[in-house]
Amino acid sequence: MKSVNDEHNLKPGSGKFNKDQSRNVTSVQRxxxxxxxxxxxxxxxxxxxxxxxxxxxxxxxxxRTLEETGAVFQDPISRRxxxxxxxxxxxxxxxxTHELLILSAEKxxxxxxxxxxxxxxxxxxSGLKLVRLFSVPSRHPLRVVEIxxxxxxxxxxxxxxxxxxxxxxxxEDKFRQLLRYIKLEIAENPSINIEExxxxxxxxxxxxxxxxxxxxxxxxxxxxxxxxxxxxxxxLNIYGPAERIKPRIVEYLDKALGSAxxxxxxxxxxxxxxx
Length: 275
What we know:
Blueprint: H1 4-7, H2 19-39, H3 45-52, H4 56-68, E1 72-74, E2 81-83, H5 85-91, H6 94-97, H7 99-116, E3 119-126, E4 129-136, H8 161-168, H9 172-187, H10 194-207, E5 210-213, E6 220-227, E7 234-241, H11 242-245, H12 249-270
Antiparallel strand pairs: 1-2, 3-4, 3-7, 5-6, 6-7
Helix pairs in contact: 2-4, 3-4, 7-12, 8-10
């Protein structure tokens, strides 16, 4: 894939790319790297400078500019930097934020729902909450109805097949970081066994899918598989009454795994080839 510079012949010395333009492009690239650092929890000046291989002075200048635009906020007490209101407003609408993912997956979600005649959805995770990105409801009058996004709770992250599949996709260090917050939530619910949850996540990583019965909806069954190659964990899920899905569970699981592979391929084509 040609870069913007190659496509428009915007190279130093080409006559179309002067020094001011070159400096502007470099500043934008550096600013994006800083925002990525903040999104990963690297939020002090020296840490950002080290991660971006820039001087403290350069990072400080760029942070000041980002702060003026609302892209960055500095806590006056800790002096640490965080993503600001303008970035948060850009990501507040999950449909728009993940539009390329939905574009990559919509056809497969619809085909899978048409084949199974059950509810099929695409979920991701934000903080400790599940976020539904796209869903096709079952054709049957008797069907499992998903929890509306506004009714989802932080506690949903440790219950049900999608939550387990999403958590299983995190690297071990990130998973343990999330686990600290999950433990706080579980402390208020003694019926949840943290050791059992960790074993379940480990098993999901190993087998590459999760199937749960009645964990979130009584009498319901959910098949969940991971969708790879996106910037966040994603799960593809089939929901329905257990009595209807159970006789065809192996068949549906195979179909879901195939759909997830094709969605991942689409993601690589759309996101990675245009990066």
